[in-house]
Amino acid sequence: MSQVxxxxxxxxxxxxxxxxxxxLKGVEYEYLxxxxxxxxxxxxxxxxxxKRVPVLIHGGKxxxxxxxxxxxxxxxxxTSPLLPRDPYQRAMARxxxxxxxxxxxxxxxxxxxxxxxxxxxxxxxxxEALEILEGELKGNKFFGGENVGFxxxxxxxxxxxxxxxxxxxxxxxxxxxxxxxxxxxxxxDFLEIPAIKETLPEREHMVRYFSRSRRFNLAMVAxxxxxxxxxx
Length: 232
Ligand SMILES: N[C@@H](CCC(=O)N[C@@H](CS)C(=O)NCC(=O)O)C(=O)O
Hints:
Elements (H helix, E strand, L loop, with lengths): L3 E5 L4 H12 L5 E4 L7 H6 L8 E4 L2 E4 L1 H11 L10 H27 L2 H22 L12 H10 L3 H8 L10 H12 L1 H4 L5 H29 L1
Parallel strand pairs: 1-2
Antiparallel strand pairs: 1-3, 3-4
Helix pairs in contact: 1-3, 1-6, 4-5, 4-6, 4-7, 7-10
The structure holds glutathione (GSH).
The site of glutathione has 11 residues, from helix 3.
């Protein structure tokens, strides 16, 4: 099998998805850390449209976007399947992964970079998404059933590895294990899987990254407000 490389960044929950999929499938790969502020020539060459990580390099071909990378890995390496074979179950897994991305991960990114009423609104939205996901587990061990699958990887990259950092940086509480007991148990089981726990992002890098985004965005909002006041 051709050589596999992964372009990533230490703090990135999106890169985490690709690393977990590679680990679960037992694929050996070379990891290349990227400087996202400078965006070196390798990243620009491999992902000229978005210039973002993760990017998977396989047999000289470049594949960008974490959802697409995980699906590509699943189709290329058949061991430890991540998506169900049945077309309807497959469609459902894609639906819930998209839900977890749009209604939880994207919303949590907004929680981290906002404050006041805007932040309260986003915290409420994130909790509503968790309530729905709590119901969707329906007594299953994982979203993928007895084994971790696509939805677990997509959702886990935010809830298992960076939610507490996002809560700390945003000075909010979103997750309550009393309120979401199935998700709390899911999280414990998820983090016990060797292929998952042996690759986790480094907390200090995540704290630095999310704190920097929060400071930057709040400063931009304050600058806009000042501009508007001067216009009056
Ligand atoms: N939708 C993309 C998001 C990837 C993403 O936002 N990556 C961040 C790192 S956490 C990045 O490369 N940011 C650099 C930039 O946007 O300039 C995916 O799922 O792969």
